[in-house]
Design brief:
Layout lengths: L3 E5 L4 E4 L2 E4 L4 E5 L5 E3 L12 H14 L2 H21 L3 H15 L3 H19 L12 E3 L11
Antiparallel strand pairs: 1-4, 1-6, 2-3, 2-5
Helix pairs in contact: 1-2, 1-4, 2-3, 3-4
């Protein structure tokens, strides 16, 4: 099995299999097994879910990195929020990206679903003239060998 090596800075946050981890000093970690994880700007705090697209991202995030008990609720919330968004939007592109994102999440390919949801968030920001979410501190992944990127969520 290949591994993924990440370099994280002091204060960086990472969530692995539902557990938040804040790094007290600069560190380099190696993930040697499959895990559900996000770090840095990929993680949306609950208070940032202030628009329809951001609420969808947060629900999909919960379906991906929430605890075992939270994941099914996150997926159900994503279904409902995506349906509402698709009915309200005039953007065929946003509807299609969300259709694909929900399909990916239901197939347990949550990381790819989040990537599509982030694109819908950027689209929403442009259309509504909203400022983008402020960037969070993030460490760039550094693969060693043939590390799988993006990480699997299974």
């Amino acid at each position: 099995m290949s591994t993924l090596v990440l370099e994280l800075r002091q204060g960086d946050l990472m969530v692995v299999n539902g557990a938040p981890i804040r790094f007290r000093n600069r560190t380099r970690i190696e993930l040697a097994a499959k895990a559900r994880f996000l770090f840095g700007k990929q993680i949306m705090p609950p208070e940032a879910a202030t628009t329809p697209a951001r609420r969808i991202y947060f629900a999909l995030q919960t379906a991906y990195i929430g605890t075992e008990a939270e994941r099914s609720g996150g997926l159900e919330a994503a279904r409902r929020l995506i349906g509402d968004f698709q009915q309200a939007t005039t953007s065929a592109l946003a509807r299609e990206m969300l259709r694909q994102a929900l399909g990916l999440a239901e197939a347990d390919d949550c990381y790819q679903a989040l990537k599509l949801a982030r694109r819908v968030m950027r689209h929403e920001e442009e259309v509504l003239g909203l400022p983008p979410l402020p960037p969070a501190r993030q460490a760039a992944p550094r693969p060693e060998g043939e590390a799988p990127l993006p990480p699997p969520c299974r």
